[in-house]
Amino acid sequence: MGALEGVAGRVAGGETVEFRPSGTSMVPLIRSRQLVAVAPVDPSKLAVGDIVLARVAGTVYLHLVSSVDPAKKRVQISNNRGHVNGWTGHGRVFGICVAVDGTPRAGAAAKVLKAEPVTGSEEGPGRSASS
Q: What is the model's pTM?
């Protein structure tokens, strides 16, 4: 299992995860071992230039969205050096990078997937534990 597989699973499960990826394919946006925060994303809101955690052809990457195809619900993933990894469906985009070394990424917070509100309770609708 690759280092990003576990992170992808946690983000897909709804967590915002901080970690330190290694490598130089995203320099200068992300340098090796910089602290990044990745949150679950609403893939329909993605735009070119967003940094996402996504699976392409079986490998998980923290790379750029280089093109979007809303009609087919997919995005193209590339590194920051011009190499295109390929297209992947919205269901394989796990999260969006919301911060690098504590500095928020512009516009990323608006694309974070909001948790569904919990409705009802064990006490039943309109009732509280104290009634």
A: 0.86
**Quick check: 18 and 35 in contact, CB under 8 A?**
yes
pLDDT digits (tens, 9 = 90+) for 32-62: 999 999 999 999 999 999 999 999 999 999 9
Q: For 68-116, write each residue's pLDDT tens digit.
A: 999 999 999 999 999 999 999 999 999 999 999 999 999 999 999 986 6
Kind of pairing, strands 84-89 and 17-19?
unpaired
Instruction: Please state, in angstroms and rounded to a whole number, the distance separating the CA atoms of residues 76 and 88.
Output: 6
DSSP string of the chain?
--HHHHHHHHHHTT--EEE----STTTTTS-TT--EEEEEB-GGG--TT-EEEEEETTEEEEEEEEEEEGGGTEEEEE-TTS-EEEEEEGGGEEEEEEEETTEEPTTTGGGBPPPPPP---TT-TT--TT-
Q: Are 79 and 26 in contact (CB under 8 A)?
A: yes
